[in-house]
């Protein structure tokens, strides 16, 4: 996290998708005063094969990756943690905003 902040001071834009953890020293000392934070409403679903061999597909049937067969169990799971994006930029007005990504996807 600190390296991301340092890289942004050299003119780079750094975007991170991380679990929400607003009670930490890192959040209050590095992220909050130096970044735009977007708290994402709801949990973000990810697709892939879990450690038990189940195909996790939140979109159920849009596509099937190579190696995934029709008989593999398909589970619909959201992420385990709430998420936030942290955006470090060279010139930033630190702020924390909420983003309802589900409603934006459904509107499109």
Explain what the structure shows.
By secondary structure, the protein is of the alpha/beta class. It folds into 2 domains: 74 residues, no CATH class; 32 residues, no CATH class. 22% of the residues lie in helices and 26% in strands. The protein has 3 helices and 7 strands. The strands form 2 sheets. Strands 1-6-2-7 form a 4-stranded mixed beta sheet. The chain is elongated. The two termini are 33 Å apart. The mean pLDDT is 78.
Label this structure with key terms.
108 residues, alpha/beta, 4-stranded mixed beta sheet, 3 helices, 7 strands
Summarize the structure.
With 108 residues, the chain is α/β, with parallel strands linked by helices. The protein folds into 2 domains: 1-44 and 79-108, no CATH class; 46-77, no CATH class. It has 3 helices and 7 strands.
Task: Lay out the secondary structure.
Elements: H1 2-8, E1 14-19, H2 25-34, E2 36-40, E3 48-49, E4 55-56, E5 74-75, E6 83-88, E7 95-99, H3 101-107
Parallel strand pairs: 2-7, 4-5
Antiparallel strand pairs: 1-6, 2-6, 3-4
């Amino acid at each position: 996290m600190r390296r991301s902040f340092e890289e942004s001071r050299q003119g780079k834009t750094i975007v991170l998708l991380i679990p929400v953890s607003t009670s930490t020293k890192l959040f209050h000392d590095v992220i909050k005063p130096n970044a735009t934070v977007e708290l994402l409403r709801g949990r973000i679903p990810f697709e892939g094969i879990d450690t038990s061999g189940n195909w996790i597909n939140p979109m159920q049937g849009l596509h099937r990756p190579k190696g995934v067969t029709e008989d593999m169990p398909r589970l619909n799971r959201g992420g385990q943690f709430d998420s936030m994006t942290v955006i470090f930029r060279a010139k930033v007005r630190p702020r924390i905003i909420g983003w309802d990504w589900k409603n934006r996807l459904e509107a499109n």
